[in-house]
Design a protein that fits this description.
By secondary structure, the chain is α+β, with helices and mostly antiparallel strands. It is about 25% helix and about 30% strand. This is Sensor histidine kinase inhibitor, KipI family.
Amino acid sequence: MKPRIEVVGIDCLMLRLFDEIDEAHMPWLLAATRRLREAFGAALLDLVPSYTTLLVHYDLSQLDDDQARQRVAEALHDLQPDASGQARELDIPVWYDPSVGPELEALGQRSGLGTAGVIERHSARIYQVFALGFAPGFAFMGLVDECLASPRLQTPRTRVPAGSLGIADRQTAIYPLISPGGWNLIGRSPTRLFDRELDGYSIWQPGDRVRFQPIDHAEFVRLGGDDTPYEVSR
């Protein structure tokens, strides 16, 4: 790991730790996150991890650029990956169905797996939460099986229902709120992902491991899911 430091604001540094997305990088990113929080202490305003980077937002009234860089150097000196094995594991119920996942059948045809095969293949993996962003509670997860990888829609939808599960390239995510979006929708979850009572307003954090559990329509409704077909809710 050879981190590069970029200035992205008068009080923000971007640390580029890797050049490619890889699940094996997460222990390093988690270790760096912990060390940076300790090094900056009260001078840290925000720390945002992503696939390959860490954004450090610090208090300019407490540190100047040189001092911030020094703390970064101290934090990353002799860094070792986080091998604690204490990542949380979350099971998220999903109703995979064409009525709420308009790309499900097309993905089944394109992959040659059929609808049932897509559901089986997508739900068989344990996904890593790489980053949070776009909207509160929106977790970028991966990596999906290569046969399910799908480019974003050429024309994004103006309104994607909350709980919609989608795929973009080799990423997968659930829309926590009604919002625009261009991911390929394959199902919907009844789980509440955005909660003001939670730390960070989200049920998950970078480093969490997630498995999607297929459920039927009756269970989806019982858990409070909105089964309004996409065509109507749009």
